[in-house]
Give the backbone structure.
Amino acid sequence: MVAPQPLRVVRCGGSKLSGARAAFSADAKYLLCASGDYVKVYSTATEKCVHILQGHTNLVTGIQLNPQNHMQLYSCSLDGTIKLWDFTDGILIKVCKYFVLSQLFMDSRVVHYWFQLVSVKLPKTPDQEVEAKELSLILDDIGQWPKCTMFFFYIKCINHILFSLSATSKKGANNYFTCVACHPKEDCIASGHKDGKIRLWRNFNHKREYTFSTLHWHHDVVMDLAFSVEGTSLLSGGVESVLVQWRDGSDYKKEFLPRLGSTIEHISASPDGTFYCTSHTENKIIIIHSSLSVSAVIQGLVKGSDVKTGLVVDPRTKALVLNGKPGHLQFYCLQTDKQLYNLDIVQQEYIHQIGLNQVDLVKAAFSAQGNWLATVEQREEKEVELELQMKLWNYDEQTQSFTLNTRINMPHEDHVTALCFRDTDELEDGTPTLVTAGNDGRFKVWVLVNDSDSEKPSMGWSCDFVGSYHNYPATNCCFSEDGSLLAVSFEETVTVWNSDTWDLICTFCHPPGRIQNLCFGRLSCSKYLLGTTDCGFLCCWNLLSCALEWSAQLNVMVLQPDPLSENIAAVSRLLEGSDLFVFKPNEPRPFCIQRNVCRERVQCAVFIPRDVPDSIGSEKHQWLSRSQLYFLTETQDLLTFSTKSAEERLTPSSRQLAVEESLPMTPFSLLLGKHRHQQQSKENADLDTAVVQSHLAQGSPAVKELLHTPAHVLPSASFLCSIFINSVLISKENKSAGEVVDVVEMDSEKAEDESDEDLELTEMEQDINPTEFLGEITEIKLSKSQEKQLRKIRRMDYSWVAAL
């Protein structure tokens, strides 16, 4: 009997791609980047993640290719280990443990962190797990940012050279260092500063005094610098979202790649000089050709300051939808851990200015079939001045995207707190219906009506009903599974309304606390209504008896029902961490309890239906078979639950890289490798070369012997060259008699073509008989050209068909 696997909390996506500087492989076919506690390997040609290196238990802070083996990679992490990987096969070669030391100095006003630059000598032992004990201090009291540390490989002895600048100047310059980069071949260091200036330091390795020159284009802090492989160009980036290329260290020779989307955090160059890559604050990496043209974009989950829309599921693509760039909705694919596309909701240019109040996207909801999308955006200049706008978007099958249908200004007089669509599949009416709730003490029902006129037919949304309850602020709203009931919470009271007549049916009130979450039960538990309060109570009401069924004090922060089952997930927040409770409304005792799922507070959660039900052995975890639960933490880490191990979660494409793609193209591989098979497949499709292909399909004994003989016993290539070339050629003796006759007839056919053209003109006039138009068809006779073509077909040799 196989023991059931424990339930694990795994990071399924959304990790920051720009936390550390990315690295190219030696041939620039792969890009390696740190993503949370993983190292991901992307293809520079297809933008796909082809491998995931898993093994660290904490944040990966840096990666570097092995100088002695370009197929290996070093990675360091906050878990106190340095790991050596074979990234082509995903094999962990060695683990080196070291101690993480930090000194903390405190005074009466501020806390200072002192960092040390330490050299770690990796032991050369055959063991897979070793411990680094030889540590040597290089420099003390350095900056905490890794971009302020760089190595000079040509300096054999360690010398401390102090470059000093005044922190501020009379002209208002800010000279604080933000990043450094070393020239690969010359005696030069480039440094970036907070005032946007770049300084090139020279002559510091000589007895005379060092000198520096200044380059200035950035208006704000310089985020990162990088030299090209040959050192002829210097790349810089900052908050302007522009990559600047400085030629030969001159202020007059610079080129720009603008509109990259967001602040550039890191810049890397490939070892062969063909690509650059920039890492951005909106969690994306742009691969750029050396000619400053964008080659590929690797977009991760965009992380903002706050996810106000929560986690929403697109019913069409099963994609995760939430706040993306300012004023945008991002559609994120969980299977590929990649963003599908962005939808511009606000449709206004975002101004990068601190303290400026701009339009913010706060609410979003989909209809049951995904045909309609409702969004709410707001802009609040002061407490009194509030701008609200609700937009209804219709899905266009032709463009495969959402188009704006209706814009409603000020749908409520105060903030919109909730909105939801009614599922119209099981209703006879079938009219799309949307309900919004606001702090103005109202909930409004919006329906799709026909706004057609005599000239142009159109459909639009309008308000159909307005409801309230003692003018209390409406905080939540939701429909039942069949759409017949609507529940709206007003402060501490829950009201239930008939969705056909909009009559108030009953009210529920539970002391004390304001209602925070509200949802109906599903399937066999559809007669229950559940809600949570800000005082920590979880309440379950019976709609048939109109009474409280049960309640529990769990301090529930998130309440999420499964759309395909009766299960409901509740996440509670305690002092030590967040706990998960999975239960059914008809049973107050949860059947699955998962303690300490994460240390941070869970902001929101969502169930996403699976395309194919998953086979889970444990009965305790069967609630994950049809739907997958995802939840987002305060640090915007997207987590989920899984009963599979790390190896089982890997897809076949990420378990093994295609080795053929990393091999160099040689003349021998062109003759016998994949390229030759591709050419043969194209030639097989051509009917004119069918006879030639029949001979090649039989194979050559010389080729077979060459491929099956061990390499160490083969003669020299010069000896085999003539034999190999002659074996793939077709000799004249092998041609059939019919082929020789066809070649001879080619000359005679050219001479007869001119005479045949004149004959065909006269024959066409004879063939056109008026009796054919009357339906009288006479005996059909072939022309001379048709008879000649028939004789040619009869003489053709079709013996090659037997070989197939």
Summary: The longest helix spans residues 737-767.
